Amino acid sequence: YAKGDIFSAPIKVLSDIDDTTICSLHDRRFPKGVVYPGVVALWEALDLGPDSKPRSLGDLTFITARPADLLGWVEDQTRKKLRGAGVSVSSMLTGSMLHLLSHAGMAEKKIQNITHYHALFPEYRLVFIGDSGQGDVRVGERLLTEFAGSVDAVLIHDVVGTDAAVRAQYAERGIVFFDTYVGAAVAVHGLGLISDAGLRAVADATVDGLKKFLKDIGSDIPRLDLPHEEICDKMRLTLPVNGYKVPRNIALMFFSEDPGQFFPGMSIEVVRFLDDAGGDLIDERAFTGPVYQQVR
Predict the structure, then answer these.
(1) 58-69 per-position pLDDT tens digit
(2) How far apart, in whole angstroms, are the C-alpha atoms of residue 54 and residue 153?
(3) pTM above the 0.85 mark?
(4) 166 within 8 A of 267, measured Cβ to Cβ
(5) CA distance 16 to 107
(6) What is the reported pLDDT for 105?
(7) How far apart are CA 161 and CA 127, in angstroms?
(8) Are strands 268-273 and 281-287 parallel, antiparallel or unpaired?
């Protein structure tokens, strides 16, 4: 969709939990259990819509592979963690032990849940937010096929360092990979799903969340209590050009969502061959994204 294609129907946000809402399994950038900076602000921005005049509020539903248990302990612990992040109202569609055996099984259970859910709320459009660590890409593909015309966006939090070329291929099919929730907000803002104020709110919340994270791990940066621009100046990440401050190359390499757009070919490529000279290629992988992420 092009920017400005505003839909009158209200939106239901369907969000995964592990490695989408809470750092849990594959992501090594944050400690386990951390709620990702900016994710709550993105839900709120989608709830408010492109003109901050929502037709309904509280339209967040978690769809997770986590299985339900008879005593409800798993769901209670999950909700407790979410309440700590400021999420007081939400629904939850859980998985099953049987479907945990494979990524395909997890995806199938999520699709089953979404099918039943959409039958209850056919007037709502859908935004799906998942991650690249398990079966959510497969869920997104099926949503765009089986619910064509009802899905406004499929967003995938990349926690496994997906190659830029692969990301581009998925983007052509309507599946957007992102590294931070600022990137996710830019994507849905471009689709006309959130307002300018919503985009700013996600950016501010992400920066605040990162500052809190740095404080929690003992970094001195948050103690400076300076505006973001001044912190960048003190870290010598910007320089003046024609009366404007622009990021240095090192800033783009370390802190941009996709440094490859500024420096084509900026990636680490690892290739393994058979032992003998000139042996056949047996494995190849490219690591993309910010430099700190590539070398982890």
Answers:
(1) 678 988 876 766
(2) 18
(3) no
(4) no
(5) 11
(6) 80
(7) 23
(8) antiparallel
The CA radius of gyration of the chain, in Å to the nearest whole number, is: 20
Asked whether the predicted pLDDT for residue 130 surpasses 90, the reply is yes
N- to C-terminal Cα separation, the chain? 35
Beta-carbon contacts of 225 under 8 Å, excluding residues fewer than 6 positions away, are: none
**Residue type present at position 253:** M
Question: What's the chain look like in SS3?
Answer: CCCCCCCCCCEEEEECCECCCECCCCCCCCCCCCECCCHHHHHHHHHHCCCCCCCCCCCEEEEEEEECCCCCHHHHHHHHHHHHCCCCCCEEEEECCHHHHCHHHHHHHHHHHHHHHHHHCCCCEEEEEEECCCCHHHHHHHHHHHCCCCEEEEEEECCCCCCHHHHHHHHHCCEEEECCHHHHHHHHHHCCCCCHHHHHHHHHHHHHHHHHHHHHCCCCHHHHCCCHHHHHHHCCCEEEECCEEEECHHHHHHHCCCHHHCCCCCCEEEEEECCCCCCCEEEEEEECCCHHHHCC
Judge contact between 153 and 193, C-beta under 8 A: yes
